[in-house]
Design brief:
The complex is a heterodimer of chains A (about 80) and B (about 230). Chain A is mainly α. In chain A, about 90% of the residues lie in helices and about 0% in strands. Chain A has a single domain (about 1-75), classed as F1FO ATP Synthase. With about 230 residues, chain B is an all-alpha fold. Chain B has one domain (about 5-95, about 150-220). Chain B is globular, with a radius of gyration of 22 Å. Classes of the chains: A mainly alpha (about 80), B mainly alpha (about 230).
Chain lengths: ~80, ~230
């Protein structure tokens, strides 16, 4: 019983990654669009897009880490 | 005291990097500047040029002279650590101590550059900007840099490793259903290499790149007129 609830909790934690996935895709879309409009600035836009995506990805990784903590430390 | 197994792979990777750099150093010494570079010399030159351009774009030429060697070493170390799983070693970056050390080095570097740019008075003042009560916020933002840098690398690599082991277990169950060759994980042999390519090579390169890009960007933020 307890283990099942822990599994559910871990699964719910990882759901936080969905939103990150959608909006990280949005970062990529915007980067591609602006490179299409202004190909000269491709280098700058690329590095900015990667930094933005990496920073917003942190949220999803925190969700994942909490899920790991639930599975491997509470559930062990 | 019990020794973590990651220590052995850290030692192996460190020795490998030392030997590699020693070999490259010897090759570069033997290289005649008038002749055409080829092989490893050409590769090293291209890498140095790329990194130098990347660092001096974000910071300035003077800082890039000191920062580029550090950035290249860290990039090599993180890249080799991330792909260590391919060579049957335990991945050092899936150990939180390693990534925390790397992120702490970045944070110390940020503070050092901030100090050298602003001087003693300006550095102390920068902690209390824009108003004195904001010191709490400033400390929190410095701590969050440390946490997010270390946890990003750690989480990405650890999740890749755990997913791979889960996938191997699943593939073993599937190939157990096949008659005659059930004990041999035949489905794993077919499916796993593509996943290894994504989880180890691609995300390893990406994470090393993101780590150094963020390090350079954070340091560049501390310098004036950038």
């Amino acid at each position: 019983m307890e283990k099942g609830i822990m599994a559910l909790a871990a699964a719910l934690c990882v759901c936080g990654g969905c939103v990150t996935g959608i909006f990280e895709g949005k970062v990529a879309i915007q980067a591609v669009e602006s490179i299409g409009k202004n190909p000269d600035a491709a280098d700058k836009i690329q590095s900015m897009a990667i930094i933005g995506a990496a920073i917003s990805e942190t949220c999803a990784i925190y969700c994942l880490l909490v899920a790991f903590l639930i599975i491997f430390i509470l559930g062990a | 005291m019990e020794i973590q197994t990651a220590v052995y792979s850290i030692i192996i990777i460190t020795v490998f990097i030392a030997l590699l750099l020693f070999y490259i150093n010897r090759k570069l010494r033997e290289y005649d500047p008038l002749s055409e570079p080829k092989g490893i010399v050409l590769l090293v030159m291209m890498a140095a040029q790329t990194f130098d351009k990347m660092v001096s774009d974000k910071t300035d030429k003077k800082v890039a002279k000191y920062l580029t060697p550090y950035i290249m070493t860290v990039a090599l170390y993180i890249f080799l650590s991330n792909i260590a799983g391919l060579f049957a070693l335990e991945t050092p970056t899936s150990n939180y101590s390693v990534t925390l050390t790397l992120a702490a080095l970045t944070c110390i570097l940020i503070e050092v550059f901030s100090f050298s740019e602003r001087g003693v008075k300006g550095y102390i003042k920068s902690w209390f900007e824009p108003l004195a009560p904001f010191v709490v916020m400033n400390i929190m933002s410095k701590l969050s840099t440390l946490l997010s840098l270390s946890l990003r690398l750690f989480g990405n690599i650890l999740s890749g490793g755990i997913l791979m082991s889960v996938i191997y277990q699943m593939l073993a169950v599937i190939s157990h259903k096949i008659p005659f060759i059930g004990d041999f994980n035949i489905v794993g042999v077919i499916v796993a290499p593509a996943l290894h390519f994504y989880f180890d090579l691609f995300s390893g390169v990406m994470q090393a790149f993101i780590f150094i890009t963020l390090t350079v960007a954070f340091i560049g933020k501390e310098l004036p007129n950038k």
